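Researcher: I've been going back and forth with a colleague about how DUF1153 domain-containing protein might be arranged in three dimensions. Neither of us has a model we trust, so I'd like an independent prediction. The organism is Gymnodinialimonas phycosphaerae, in case that matters for your notes. Sequence below.
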Amino acid sequence: MYIRKIQGPHTVSLPDGSTMTRSDLPSPTTTRWVASRKAAVVRAVSCGLLSASDAIRTYSLSEEELESWRVAVERHGEKALKTTAIQQFREKE
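Model: Here is an independent structure prediction for DUF1153 domain-containing protein. You can compare it with whatever you and your colleague have in mind.
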């Protein structure tokens, strides 16, 4: 069995006491970004499982896209990542 060497940790502990591993992350070929997949990437970056630059490169995201996901989760929780809830959580200008 071959184990690929990677930079960084293989598992991290989340604030709620659960653990997250690299196998919990979405596939690098993901094209349909549902809220749960976005949340998994945000959690991985915020807990140090994956660096922001690795997430951007792996998932072909822009810096702005990843940052908007992070801000939405920080301000309103993971429910804000649902596309049907965008207008509900959008900041008033």
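Researcher: What would you highlight for our discussion?
Model: I'd start with this: The mean pLDDT is 85. After that, consider the following. The chain has four helices and two strands.
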